[in-house]
Design goal:
- The protein has about 190 residues and is of the alpha+beta class.
- It has one domain: 60s Ribosomal Protein L30, Chain: A, CATH 3.30.1330.
- It contains five helices and five strands; from the N terminus they run αααββαβαββ.
- Strands 1-2-5-3-4 form a five-stranded mixed beta sheet, covered by helices on one side.
- About 30% of the residues are buried.
Length: about 190
């Protein structure tokens, strides 16, 4: 009996949470219309952004996974890879300033846009940037990780408008692979 009650309670909590979350993130009709009032591909051109060829994974993982009947796409962590193939490296607060970290996060965002375009074929399929995790290679006393990851977030809003606004974590790390300055991963809702 206790087991049955626990199961029913768990199911009820899950159901309420799932339905409640759906209602929270669902835009109303007016917001839906505002989300698609321009061509994202053209906007990227207008912003003078050139999308690079996405890089291959550097370890045993895949760059993207879609799930929930291909409505959500999860992009693996990506760093600030420059057009020459090198990365912006160093520790924010020691080797790099907050402003340089901001630019590194923006560059990581451009690389994520390139990966997203490769996965979707058309960036106009992006319904919403849902969740972002930004990791900042920073000293233990540096505490402005959100200001650094704003380089990414500002870019997403510039490109996608309201559908680029997202939930986010900005985390300080003691180190990142290859000593890159930032690494960012994201979850995207797609049409």
């Amino acid at each position: 009996m206790v087991m049955k009650m626990c199961f029913l309670f768990s199911f009820f909590v899950f159901f309420i949470s799932f339905v409640g979350c759906e209602n929270v993130i669902k835009p109303n009709k007016k917001e839906s219309l505002d989300l698609y009032n321009y061509d994202v591909e053209q906007k990227i051109t207008t912003l003078n952004i050139v999308l690079p060829e996405p890089s291959s994974p550097v370890a045993n993982y895949v760059p993207a996974v879609s799930f929930l009947e291909d409505k959500l796409l999860y992009l693996s962590g990506t760093g600030p890879k420059k057009p020459d193939g090198s990365y912006i490296v160093g520790t924010i607060g020691l080797d790099l300033s907050k402003e340089e970290g901001y630019e590194a996060a923006k560059l990581a965002g451009i690389n994520l846009l390139a990966r997203l375009k490769k996965e979707l074929g058309d960036l106009n399929r992006v319904k919403r940037i849902v969740k972002v995790t930004g990791m900042v290679n920073s000293t233990k006393d540096f505490n402005e990780q959100p200001a650094v990851i704003n380089g990414f977030s500002d870019l997403m809003v510039d490109v996608f408008g309201e559908r680029g606004r997202h939930s986010r974590s900005a985390i300080g790390m003691v180190s990142l692979p290859m000593n890159i300055a930032v690494e960012i991963e994201m979850l995207i809702e797609i049409n």
